[in-house]
Write a structure and sequence with these properties.
Layout (H helix, E strand, L loop, with lengths): L1 H45 L2 E7 L6 H11 L3 E6 L14 H4 L2 E4 L9 H12 L5 E4 L4 E5 L4 H5 L9 E8 L13 H4 L5 E11 L6 E2 L4 E2 L7 E2 L24 E5 L5 H9 L10 H15 L4 H11 L4 H8 L1
Parallel strand pairs: 1-2, 1-4, 2-3, 6-10, 6-11
Antiparallel strand pairs: 4-7, 5-11, 6-7, 8-9
Length: about 325
């Protein structure tokens, strides 16, 4: 009987120590898992991101724009309102919760002469308050693979970067002639066309930075420019890069440049956002050329544009019949 008890004690002892060993290992794994989550969570709390934009008569789209970027993880949105004084205010289209994320600068025309000035002003006023500042128009939506911009930016590959360039992709008009009261993402879906044009996000606290429409004026010696996967790239142009450098892995800008034919035309009827002045007509003709290059030419589109803009599009009628 004594022998059995001793054997039993020995077996219990072996089992206990064996189990304890596995429990300790499990506890260590769980501990490191919790620490990792804690660190990542705190990084997301510490990093702050702002967005700067300028808009004119974007009332149909402003709510979708703001809700999209709040969900993406933007902490605050600065809007330079380029509307005419008679236009309805952007703030009338936002609910109380959305307004917490937004600062709107109204009646700017006498102090802000163009979009470059607006973006530069926005950066200079907020560079010490935010880790990163994204510069986009109200028809541009930054897509990141993780759906959370902060998770994307805290990756170590971007530690060296002062600027990150994102290439545009363009949805087509999906042969929609008229506006529909649906979200942009419902109306204009893939496939997207790649573009050489870019927009940028800028690290905070950079001295003497001036911004143009798509990218900052920078010195390649002082500042490091990266692409969307963290590779250092040679700075070539402020607005675009060559076709061979287009990269849309991990992140890119979905640019709803055209929308429907009606919206494309209305964009130019209202005048550009405090930008082109006397060059407007020539710019419009060039944009019609871009529109028919990227979208299907149809009789209905030609007739609609001719009627609304009082233009003769015989060149495109000829191309349609070829």
């Amino acid at each position: 009987m004594k022998i059995k008890i001793i054997i039993l004690n020995i077996n219990i002892e072996k089992y206990f120590f064996k189990s304890s060993k596995y429990i300790i290992i499990k506890c260590i794994i769980i501990f490191f898992f919790i620490i990792t989550i804690f660190i990542k969570f705190n990084q997301n709390l510490v990093i702050k991101i702002a967005l700067c934009t300028m808009g004119k008569n974007e009332h149909l789209y402003i709510k979708e724009f703001i809700d999209y970027y709040i969900k993406l993880g933007i902490d605050h949105i600065f809007i330079y309102d380029d509307n005419d004084k008679s236009s309805e205010k952007f703030s009338n289209y936002l609910n109380i919760e959305e307004k917490k994320y937004v600062t709107i600068y109204e009646n700017i025309k006498n102090i802000i002469f163009n979009q470059s000035d607006a973006f530069t002003d926005c950066y200079q006023n907020n560079k010490n308050k935010f880790n990163w500042i994204l510069m986009v128009d109200m028809d541009e939506f930054l897509y990141v693979e993780s759906d959370k911009l902060k998770n994307y930016l805290i990756h170590p590959i971007f530690n060296k970067c002062d600027f990150i360039k994102f290439h545009w992709v363009h949805p087509t008009d999906n042969n929609n002639i008229h506006y529909e009261n649906k979200s942009l993402f419902e109306r204009f879906q893939r496939p997207y066309k790649k573009s050489i044009f870019i927009k940028s996000i800028i690290r905070g606290n950079i001295s003497n930075l001036k911004y143009w429409v798509h990218s900052p004026y920078i010195s390649p010696i002082k500042n490091i420019t990266c692409n969307n996967i963290g590779q250092i790239i040679k700075y070539e142009y402020m607005n675009f890069e060559g076709y061979e450098k287009i990269n849309i892995k991990k992140a890119y800008i979905i640019h709803f440049n055209y929308k429907s034919t009606e919206e494309f035309i209305n964009k130019f009827k209202r005048g550009y956002s405090n930008w082109f002045g006397k060059e407007y007509n020539n710019f419009l003709n060039n944009k019609i050329e871009d529109y028919f290059r990227d979208n299907k030419i149809t009789k209905q589109k030609i007739e609609f544009i001719e009627k609304e803009l009082k233009l003769n599009l015989s060149y495109y009628r000829k191309k349609l019949n070829e």
